[in-house]
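Feature request, filed as a ticket because there's no other form

It would be nice if the structure record came with a short human-readable summary line next to the tokens. Right now we just get the raw output. Example of a typical job, pasted below so the devs can see what we mean:
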Amino acid sequence: TMHEVADFVAQKLAPIEGVQGTVTHFMLKRYKEDGEILEGEEEVKRQPVIL
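Raw output as currently delivered:
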């Protein structure tokens, strides 16, 4: 969840002396387009990356 990511950054990354900042990007699932609810599964074209 977003809360877990925020906790990880605050507790694990922020205290590291060399860390001056972090950036987090979330890929959210599209559920509407032009006000219309999309139906069916959207094909995932990206592979997950864990650093």
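Something like this underneath would help us a lot:
The two ends are 17 Å apart (CA to CA).
The chain has one helix and two strands.
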